[in-house]
Amino acid sequence: MSYRIGIDVGGTHTDAVLMDKDYRVLAKTKTSTTQDVSSGIYAAMREVIAESGVPREQIRYAMLGTTHCTNAIVERKHLNQIAVIRIGAPATLAIKPLIGVPDDLRAHLGKHVYIVSGGHEFDGKEITKLNEAELYRIANEIKDEVDSVAVASVFSPVSKEHELRAAEILREVLGEEAPISLSYEIGSVGLLERENATILNAAIVNVAKTTATGFINALKAENVDARVFFGQNDGTLMSVEYAMKYPILTIGCGPTNSIRGASYLSGLANALVVDAGGTTTDIGVLVNSFPRESSLAVEIGGARTNFRMPDLISIGLGGGTIVRIQDDGSFTVGPDSVGYQLPQKGLAFGGDTLTTTDVLIALKKSDLGDAEKVAHLDQDILLKVYDRIVEMAEEAIDKMKTSAEPVPVILVGGGSILFPDELKGVSQIIRPENFGVANAIGAAISQISGQIDRVFSLDEMGRDQTLALAKSIAVDEAISAGADPATVEIVEFEDIPLSYLGNATRIRVKAAGTLSLANMVSAREEVSNS
Amino acid sequence: MRHLGKQEIEDIAVGAALLGTGGGGDPYIGKLMAIQAFEEFGPITLLSVDEIPDDALVVASGGMGAPTVLVEKIPSGQEVSKAFKGLANYMGKEVFATYPIEAGGINSMLPLALAAKLGLPVVDVDGMGRAFPELQMTTFYLDGINATPMVLADEKDNVTIMDTIDNSWTERLARSVTVQMGGSATCAIYPMTGKNLKESGIHNILKLEEEIGRAIRLAKETNLDPVQEILKLTSGFELFIGKVVDVNRKTEGGWTHGTAKIEGLLEYKGEDLELSFQNEHLLARTKDRLLCVTPDLIAVVDSETGLPITTEGLRYGARVVVIGMPCHPKWRTPKGIETVGPRYFRYDVDYTPVEQLVKKGSVVK
């Protein structure tokens, strides 16, 4: 038997689950996220290992979804000293790196910025030759000045040649171990967004390294020799080695894990996921077992990147949302909330604030708290309040739907007791078991993916063959990243013809499959190799 | 005369994207170019058309090519100096000022950046009052003014000067050159006298863009409905509210054509809107009625923020408000309709002003 541990670090809670190879949950825990993040992870991990009682040597995988990297950027803490090298001059000089990024971040990350000649056209031809002499000069100048380097070349998603050559030169001067972030590994077409993501990546390399080694050491301390993975924002995994090189890809894995976990728990691949907490209810959309992505550019720490995040809407309605009833019988629901203080402040719990949960208790729809304490309230008005609560959820659900057809809804989160078993526009309501740790389960069951985002000319092979080629590249990438070939499928496909360029089109494909059991490398080997 | 700083640039970028009616590319690149130029060279000088001497040489500047290339291969900023120098040599006269050819994400912003760099003023005028895909689709053309001599320049310092027999040749040649230059180039186009610009241009367009951008920004700060603010400034109409449920794109002759289906929400529940676009939104209709048609302006905005969405940014699930705005009267002439009306874009409908379509619609309702 082999087992896996999934851990999700969120803003409030750190969740952990221990699952067997058939994804059955053997142990789960929910602890508070600690200031240093790491000690919360260790505590949660120790708890599930002890609770499950499984043999430690049979814990083969450990998956971590964490906010370490996001926090470092948002709080501007523990960021590396970096150099930014853009390859593209004479093109691109009209917008230098970090223009448009908030001033404080720019001041921190913009101390060593260079633009050298080179880069490619959309069809892969060189704009101009790479200026290698200048790269050697820069490498010598930044030696001993920076911890890490970000390199972004024009049209590197089409040709990565100049970025790879630049990395060679930098390593020659700075040493083989120097962390160098290459933009083609991080983002797609859109130089500034890809460059920003690469810059942020370079800035958090040390944070990632500390987190990863901390996690591995914690596993070792527990005598667990598992292969370690990090969750990405798209719901797939990357190896610890890759996560230390490209930590920016861990940004935003939290909501993704929650939606994927809900999918697994309910057995549904297509549904709406309604995650109700104490203060808000977040609604996401599950399409083929993955979250539907937002079409908007995502800002991280104020810097625009081309990452895609799950498309979520959030309404101010949760279990602690405050209800105010006026003398004339009119009322309001939220948007403010007593949040996690519900057990102290809620009327039915001996407090002085009327909340949505108290309304539920007064209407005998929940046996929490003390119904006597809310028995004096006017039932007619409360029924109206309750109708309003249901209506708010129904409206929000409708906003996320893509057609009038009723859809299944997966209800998770502590606040989900607010909602009845029937909602307008909903075909079926599923309240899965273990929903409190959906995030950690989402982390544990993540898949391995490969993707491609590139501009193709259709002149050479024609459209059908080009699309087939693009798909096979994505599939190969997924397999080489560790996916079981038998399970790999195309999970996303987008084909955008480029206006003006005749027969060119931009193709984005993502393939994903389950983790292959072959070629297992233990955490220890990986650390010593990297 | 007045000067534009960072806030004005930000506001103009948003307003221009709205009047760009879904085309004209992402305003982000143009805005950042203008901001960098402002940081390096100081405030940008904006002149009203009345401040231009009748005999001065004025020329539009902007970008040509694929927006997808522009976001990757950003201009060097030097292209325009070469282009203007080439044009001045060819015409034997120095350029007095530059102006935007259209309202749109990129081409409204580039002249601001280029002018700051060259130390030239920008004139508050354009040739469309919105965005259109082809070179002859300007109010200048309606008055018989030629697009050429025209200059295309790239970041490699290549400069091409074209003097053509008609605008369809200009279009053909400019497009080939642009593709060879890497899919994106900087251009100087529609050189003319200050007098011509006054008579044939659409005045105060940057001012309108700035007002729209400011209104959307302030609406957010003061909790006003941004859509209502836009309608007030543009004499526009709310045509539809809904969510995008289907987007179909294909390339034909180098242009992105397509349709988007928007499913009604709120009072439009039960209805579907079909939006047809060719780089720009050109036609909005439901099963029973036509709502707005080119050259009147159709903008799609985010229903919460009021921020405009480009045709390339239209995605499944987006919740939007569709707005119709009357075009400049110069377009509502027989020659104007022939040049940019629905039949030119191969839609089998006649042009009817949006205010009449909306009135009919309200009777039906």
Observed structural traits:
heterodimer; A: 530 residues; alpha/beta; Nucleotidyltransferase, domain 5; Rossmann fold; 4 domains; nine-stranded mixed sheet; six-stranded mixed sheet; 23 strands; 26% strand; globular; disordered C terminus; B: 365 residues; alpha+beta; CV3147-like fold; CV3147-like; 2 domains; seven-stranded antiparallel sheet; 28% strand
Examine the coordinates and then state which fold CATH places here, giving the name of the CATH topology of the largest domain in chain B: CV3147-like fold
DSSP, total strands of chain A: 23
Output mean pLDDT of chain B: 91
Strand content of chain B: 25-35%
CATH class category of the largest domain in chain A: Alpha Beta
Overall geometry of chain B comes to globular
Query: Whole-number average pLDDT of chain A?
Result: 87
Fourth CATH level, the homologous superfamily of the largest domain in chain B = CV3147-like domain
- Total helical elements of chain A: 15
Strand content of chain A: 25-35%
Give the SSE string of chain B.
Answer: EHHEEHHEHEEHEEHEHEHHEEEEEEEHH
| Number of domain modules of chain B | 2
> Biggest protein-protein interface?
A-B, 45 and 48 residues
C-alpha Rg of chain A (nearest Å):
25 Å
Number of domains of chain A: 4
Structural category of chain A is alpha/beta
Biggest sheet, spatial arrangement of strands of chain A: 3-2-1-4-9-10-21-23-22
Q: Which runs of chain A of at least 5 residues are low in confidence (pLDDT < 50)? A: 519-530
Give the CA-based shape of chain A: globular
Helix tally of chain B equals 12
> What's the Cα radius of gyration of chain B?
20 Å
